Amino acid sequence: MTKTGTLYLVGAGPGDPDLLTLRAARLVSRADVLVHDGLVSQEILDLAPPSARLVSVAKSRARHTLPQDQINALLVREALAGRDVVRLKGGDPFVFGRGGEEAEDARAAGLRVEVVPGISAANGAAAAAQIALTHRDAASIVSFVAGQCKGLSDQDWSGLAGVGRTLVIYMGVKTSAKIAEKLMADGLAPDMPIAVIENATRPEMRVLRGPLAALEDIVTRQNVKSPALIVIGEVTAREDLVLARTALEAAA
Ligand code: SAH
């Protein structure tokens, strides 16, 4: 009887290869098959051995190279054939990565599944931009939501953003106008500070700040592209507050 392979669902972190876990790096370096998203950086893929078969299942909002059920089927087929399959996903596999579905299908096929956490974009971006997602003086709640078009207006975000709260929006660049509208309709002040963090932890990272009312303007004028996160809350302006206070103190 042939041995059955294992499916490793591995988080690749937000981009900087140094943010890979040791477990992830080890698994990539001995993978038989490596199935990866578009978000996984080349430096990380370069850790795979020359013998590994690399399969890209890159997706974009407009273009789905491989539908999710076919990705699941590919993972199951390869692992059932006895190969150790590393499914490398941007950030953490269980945060907006459809890792849950891949794990379910693999378990249903009788495969062994191991999940390796990764640094999610919210954590990577917050660290790189020095925005504390929680702060004793500014926020004691943090929420992660998905901002893509589908079902956006049906999602109930009430209470997730506001004073004392931080809201991190994944996949919200294209819908930024609707997002700002939705949050203000829920009662959020137009001058609530926000930050847009594009390409977090990568050399080309940009951090753009402003009030909620200017969100769409910032995204359009600065031509913000995916991958980017939108962070809503007072924590995004802490740095400004500290600088303003220091300037006031210096002037006094
Ligand atoms: N599983 C991933 C999220 C996948 S959804 C994670 O845990 O991070 C894809 C979305 O993640 C992108 O649209 C973007 O909003 C966000 N994202 C991923 N990498 C990012 C990066 N380096 N900088 C900013 N946002 C990023």
Automatic annotation (TrEMBL):
Q: Which Gene3D superfamilies match?
A: Cobalt-precorrin-4 Transmethylase, Domain 1, Methyltransferase, Cobalt-precorrin-4 Transmethylase, Domain 2
Q: Which residues form the Tetrapyrrole methylase domain?
A: 6-215
Membrane-crossing residue ranges in chain numbering: none
The protein's matches in SUPFAM superfamilies, at most eight in alphabetical order, are given as: Tetrapyrrole methylase (SSF53790)
What's a single GO MF annotation on this record?
Answer: uroporphyrin-III C-methyltransferase activity
Q: Give UniProt keywords alphabetically.
A: Cobalamin biosynthesis, Methyltransferase, Porphyrin biosynthesis, S-adenosyl-L-methionine, Transferase
- Pfam families the UniProt entry points to: TP_methylase
Q: In which pathway does it act?
A: Porphyrin-containing compound metabolism; siroheme biosynthesis; precorrin-2 from uroporphyrinogen III: step 1/1; Cofactor biosynthesis; adenosylcobalamin biosynthesis; precorrin-2 from uroporphyrinogen III: step 1/1
Matching entries from InterPro entries are given as: 4pyrrol_Mease, 4pyrrol_Methylase_sf, 4pyrrole_Mease_sub1, 4pyrrole_Mease_sub2, CobA/CysG_C, Siro_Cobalamin_biosynth, Uropor_MeTrfase_CS
> Its family?
Belongs to the precorrin methyltransferase family.
Q: Quote the PANTHER family the UniProt record gives.
A: S-ADENOSYL-L-METHIONINE-DEPENDENT UROPORPHYRINOGEN III METHYLTRANSFERASE, CHLOROPLASTIC, SIROHEME SYNTHASE-RELATED
| Name this protein carries in UniProt | uroporphyrinogen-III C-methyltransferase
